[in-house]
Amino acid sequence: MKACSIITTLFIFILTACNNKYQQHIKDYTFHAINGKPDYNNLNYWAAHPYKHDASDSVPKPLRKNYHPDSVVDIFFIYPTTYTDKEKILGWNAPVDDATLNAKTDYTSILFQASIFNEAGRVFSPRYRQANYYSYFPQTKDDTLKAVAAFDTAYADVKTAFEFYLKHWNNGRPIIIASHSQGTTHAKKLLHDFFENTNLQNKLVVAYLVGIPVEPNYFKELKPCENPNQTGCYCSWRTLQQGYKPNYILNEKYIAVVTNPLTWDSLKPNADRHLNEGSILLNFNKLYKHVAAANIDSGVLFTPKPKFFGSMFLKTKNYHIADYNFYYLSVRKNVQQRINAFWK
Length: 344
Prior knowledge:
Blueprint (H helix, E strand, L loop, with lengths): L1 H16 L1 H5 L22 E3 L25 E5 L20 H14 L9 E5 L14 H30 L4 E6 L1 H13 L9 E7 L12 E2 L8 E3 L3 E3 L5 H4 L19 E2 L7 E2 L6 E2 L5 E4 L2 E4 L24 H16 L1
Parallel strand pairs: 2-3, 2-4, 4-5, 5-7, 6-7, 8-13
Antiparallel strand pairs: 1-3, 9-12, 10-11, 12-13
């Protein structure tokens, strides 16, 4: 529960900082789901979609001058949990038509994470009935059953959205799967169900499965990426402060797959912060250099305490919320590397 508390505190910090940003957009999210289920033919049920302007289209100001978007590859992005209410006032699953929650999702995860991919291709991100954050920490047998059902409901939406996307919009394009936190819980299953030992596996450029551990034997066909140009593989990492190993890490019965998001090379597991050319933190339009290092050890990505203006006030040692943002520019460049390699 200590890890739960730390991550929740960091979520609240980020979401509070973004409050003024998304509150002014709540009026734009007024729609009502039929029978509570998302209708993926309706663009309201997509947090990001190439046929509408959304937060994933945003480009940090320092990167705009050299921004050259392409549209021959699709990115299917599954966002993390933003339904973090401990009392679960909306139930175990969040409704897809809650205006406040949708605005929060779009001006946190979609803006700060999905935007990484907007130069590489078309970004699709479905709204889904996400499981409440505390579904990861059930306290009773009854809660466990409800949590499992909540994750099943959430995945059913993601699966339906992906099937709709394949049928109506993919048109044979190569695909990148990207996700964070709860999104990765669902992305792992999606890759297993749709890409393992199927024709679609040949269309997979890469998968970024971030924020949730990937067990070394989870996939039979898909392999971890070993170098920055490899395709048809997956990358994964979780970020903690150097030397910090919470109980949930120590109690894992396996060594999770970890990719270094600065070197992208399994033969180079450690990278100094000076190799990190750009992080995006609370100010989306400011690129910070040399914020975080990347060192792999025991199924975790470690960095010494991040360095940026105000970092002295950062008390948490769990950097879950910044898994992508510490390495924003590095991921953005790697996406293009792998796409170029895919076409070759």
